[in-house]
Amino acid sequence: MMTSLRRPGHGYRGAVELEAEIAAAAARARALADTDEELVGVIAAEPDGGVRVYLCAYGAGESRRWLALDASGTPIVDRRVVRDAVAIAAMCELAEESAGGGDVGELRARLVELRLTENPEGIDEAEVAAAELQETLAASPRVASVAYLDAIGVAAARLEQALGGGGSPFAEAMKLGVEAAEDLAVEVERTYKAPLS
Predict the structure, then answer these.
(1) Structural domain for 128, as ranges
(2) In whole angstroms, how far apart are CA 119 and each of 6, 82, 129, 134, 163?
(3) pLDDT score, position 12
(4) Segment 41-74, tens digit of pLDDT
(5) What pLDDT score does 9 carry?
(6) Nearest Cα to Cα of residue 59 among 79, 84, 29
(7) What is the pLDDT averaged over residues 17-46?
(8) Alpha-helical segments (H) within the chain
(9) Residue 136 belongs to some domain of the structure
(10) CB atoms within 10 A of CB 159
(11) Total domain count for the chain?
């Protein structure tokens, strides 16, 4: 689960500022790398109350290590803050991968084709919901936050409702994702580059 270090995001000014913040965190993270490590990704997260955390992943051969930095570039040693940042980052990434079946652009193309060939009742509503979901999914760089996760959930639910059918594949994927997020948090703690308190 890695967010690219550089890719345009929504809102030019906000994206440029976030890119600059991530670049600064990446520079600091590189300075803290061991000689056999390479920085492979930085994920910006706001786990609680707007506190920004930069989760930094390092690769060394087949292994991976982690370090979380605060806005000033100082390593975070509070276990709860690190775990919360990992959890929200993992859940946001899972939500992005699961919403709308995982490829909203492809879904929108199929809906257009369906409208042109069969034009079933409710197709317009489904197309609008798919467009809203695609707009909600922020391009990288973006900040993983509870608000972003909630926005994806609302848009995904609206799309599933417009498409009809029983159950919610998105909700089921998110339930299963809780365990994966916990596994990632355990890995981060086990391979963390500083003592956690």
Answers:
(1) 94-178
(2) 40, 49, 16, 22, 13
(3) 54
(4) 999 999 977 789 999 999 988 899 999 999 999 9
(5) 39
(6) 29
(7) 95
(8) 12-31, 79-98, 104-117, 123-136, 146-163, 169-190
(9) yes
(10) 27
(11) 2
